[in-house]
Amino acid sequence: MMSLLAFLNPSEVNALLLSALTSVGVALLCLPPGIAVAWLLARRQFFGKTLLDTAVHLPLVLPPVVVGYALLAVLGRNGVVGSALRTMGIEVAFTPWAVVIAGAVMAFPLLVRSARLAFEAVDPNLEDAARTLGKSALATWWRVSLPLATPGIAAGTLLCFARALGEFGATITFAGNIEGSTRTLPLLIFTELQSPGGELRVGRLVAISVVIALVALVLSERGARKLRGQQAHRSRGTS
Amino acid sequence: MRVLDIELAGLAGLVALATLLVFSSLSGCRADRARPLTIFTASSTLSVVEELVGGEIAVHGAASSTLARQIAAGARADLFISAHPIWLRTLAEKNCIDRDRKQIFARNSLVIATRAEGPSDLETLPRRVAIGDPAHVPLGIYAKQALISTGRWSEWRERLLPAADARGALEYLLLGEADVAILYRTDAVGRSDLRILEEIDPAHHDPIELWIVPVVGAAEGTTALLEKLTSEAARQMLLGHGFTVDPSSEPAPERAGR
Q: Exposure winner among A43, A114, B50, B223, fewest CB in 10 A?
């Protein structure tokens, strides 16, 4: 990885690091609420469930630019929340935080969808068995439901990371395209594509993107294999 | 290890494929012309050009760099109006434009502007400054030159909010996301919602020349349209929009360079 960085110019290194950091940030940020929302949608009936479901999935069907503009309208300098934050000295729009927020909003539904399917696939009989054997609801969730859903959650987290890494429309609208601050890899590729003569640099950046995607896929495949191994081990241990 | 080898081979294959895709997309401009005339114009001139040509001609406005890139990739355009000569050079090298027929369409200058309720002067550093992206947008290229020449670059560079074209820079200012913007004079004058804080001395940047040139393979009628856009009436309208125009539309002096 270090030898790869040596081939790049500073703006490419900046974009690469920014993309990597913000995408990991998005995945980590989405994980806890993603699991909670997925479980709620999979296993609970409550007032406003359809509304929550719709709200979570909205970014998936809206054009990303619209999501970016909505974020700007809410969190921008003159936005409803943004102007309140500004009085506290916090600015979000057009900062690296805006990259994370835009990525999180766009990627969240992918994590939820995948995790929800995983929770729905958990056999309720196993949960009921844990309860009859004296486990509390929380302990059952923690020791039975969550471990069984983990592969699906992991896959969702990877999707979430990948979506954040590729995010463009919401990011350029809400975070801008500021060199060294919010110019992620896709935005750098876009910028190079705007100028005639940028093709060679674009080629390099495309190659980098492919390498990142492959590294992520290989790592996740290994992670999934390890996870399956552990689960097999655990179920042998309990039987 | 076997698995790793397969992964590496797959990786190399994909990298090769991606590279191939990038290079195969570099094919030149195309001539396929049974359709209405299309003008690709720098975003700063979009409204005046639309006004000049009326409704039946398609006018597409964006950063000159973006337009040049699109023309080089085969986009269907008949006339190209560029806010920076550098993109004409690139297109001429690729034989995408009829460089012998290029002429100066108009000239422009830069101002530092703010909203009506914005800061009253530039004594205190602006919080955020909207400009065209200096990486490619002509407005940004000129603005960066001016900032360097006036000694502001080191203080201002961290505060820049680069936009994808000149209209984008104006939009950032109007949205309030930037408190000042470096704009073309023509985008800022005559607006009640904007105030000009400083007119930038043109000595601080390359002359802002808007060039108009036919694209190679342009449709019939392009010559008439070119004449219309460089006529006396057009010059008067450009003047009315705040552009500077040359007294007579002599063909470009650089034609000997070919």
A: B223
